[in-house]
Write a structure and sequence with these properties.
Strand 3 and strand 4 form a beta hairpin. The chain has two domains: 178 residues, NAD(P)-binding Rossmann-like Domain (Rossmann fold); 129 residues, Orthogonal Bundle (N-(1-d-carboxylethyl)-l-norvaline Dehydrogenase, domain 2). The chain is an alpha/beta fold and 313 residues long. It starts with a strand and ends with a helix. It contains twelve helices and twelve strands. It binds NADPH dihydro-nicotinamide-adenine-dinucleotide phosphate and ketopantoate. One of its GO terms (molecular function) is 2-dehydropantoate 2-reductase activity.
Length: 313
């Protein structure tokens, strides 16, 4: 299976590297010029569970993706939420009627964006608890463990999706075929809706948030707002299980020492965040359904205010 990773930042590099190390044909696509140059000159360098490794992989900018490139069987979407449509506009030349697209991105609403580029039965939705961080262009830090849950959006995509699960699992990505990925997307949105904004505003990692005396009430209140809104869309979240899932991430021996992607964006790199696709999306849906979401609204405002203060772009 020929695989393209659309958005080869921290997570795209992780998934691409692990799939390539396992012997798959993988190309990376990204627009960050210095990152492309470093990977071309030195390979993708990674601190991989404490060991320095190099993986030599092909990388292209979206503009270099033209009709001369062969189409691919699978595109893994790992841009930031706000860059998804622009990326897919640019890489249209490698998308054919046989191409499947898998989103592993955080946030809500990506299936609708992807449906503009491929048929619904070629869309696969997924969530991942793997983590990754850029240490600089061409260099990524990968530690801890994780998993991936996948499911096709329409029944016709099931056979291909199960093949993808097998390929990802063989690459050590702990992939499983989900029976209800829409539930998993809301469950993961709760993880990001609590940890990402709180770590960013409180300037700490996951363990840092988890060990505060106010974490329990903040996290439970945010989960409750997500659950009330999700219920209006037919998803009944098990709030106790979701809370336990989130508290399990506080462990420093697991992913507790990770600084969520939103922290990396805003605090480390002064880049705009995905808050509008997470807490902001829940606040907007809450408004539509007549549900009050004060914590999501406030956290969204705080993150936007911080973006302005730091001059994020
Ligand atoms: N990091 C993590 O641990 C996890 C992330 N995710 C999700 O995965 C998706 C991708 O996130 P992630 O990989 O973290 O994002 P990154 O910020 O690492 O990469 C996203 C894009 O940002 C650009 N970029 C990143 N850093 C720089 C920089 N310093 N200077 C210039 N450009 C830069 C690159 O492309 P471009 O120039 O085209 O913008 C890159 O493709 C998101 O939806 C995220 O929420 C999910 C689970 C865990
Ligand atoms: C690892 C995790 C779950 C932390 O919130 C994540 O998805 C991120 O960094 O965005």
């Amino acid at each position: 299976m020929k695989i393209a990773i659309a958005g080869a930042g921290a997570m795209g590099s992780r998934i691409g590297l692990m799939l390539h190390r396992a012997g798959n044909e993988v190309i990376l696509i990204d627009r960050w010029a210095a990152h492309i140059q470093m990977i071309r000159d030195h390979g993708l360098r990674a601190n991989y569970n404490g060991e320095d490794i190099v993986e030599h992989m092909q990388i292209y900018s979206p503009e270099e993706i033209d009709a001369k490139h062969e189409s691919v069987d699978l595109i893994v979407a790992l841009t930031k939420s706000m860059g998804l449509r622009e990326m897919f506009e640019e890489i249209k030349p490698i998308i054919t009627e046989n191409t499947y697209v898998l989103s592993l991105m955080n946030g809500l609403g990506h299936a609708e964006d992807l449906a503009e580029f491929v048929d619904r039965d070629h869309i696969i939705l997924g969530v991942t608890m793997w983590t990754a961080a850029m240490e600089g262009p061409g260099k990524v830090k990968l530690f801890g463990t994780g998993n991936i849950e996948l499911q096709n959006l329409a029944p016709a995509g099931a056979t291909f999706t199960k093949d993808v699960v097998q390929i990802f699992d063989d690459a050590g990505l702990n992939a499983t075929y989900s029976q209800n990925v829409k539930y998993s997307i809301w469950r993961k949105a709760c993880v990001n809706g609590t940890l990402n904004g709180l770590c960013t505003i409180l300037d700490t990692n996951i363990t840092g948030v988890g060990t505060t005396s106010t974490a329990a009430e903040m996290v439970q209140t945010i989960i409750n707002e997500f659950a009330l809104v999700a219920a209006k869309e037919g998803i009944e979240l098990d709030q106790t299980e979701v809370y336990e899932h989130i508290t399990a991430t506080y462990d420093p021996a697991g992913i507790g020492l990770h600084y969520p992607s939103m922290y990396q964006d805003l605090i480390k790199n002064q880049r705009l965040t995905e808050i509008d696709y997470i807490n902001g999306a829940v606040a907007a849906k809450g408004k539509k359904y007549g549900i009050s979401t004060p914590y999501c609204t406030f956290l969204t405002q705080l993150v936007h205010a911080k973006e302005e203060i730091l001059g994020a772009k």
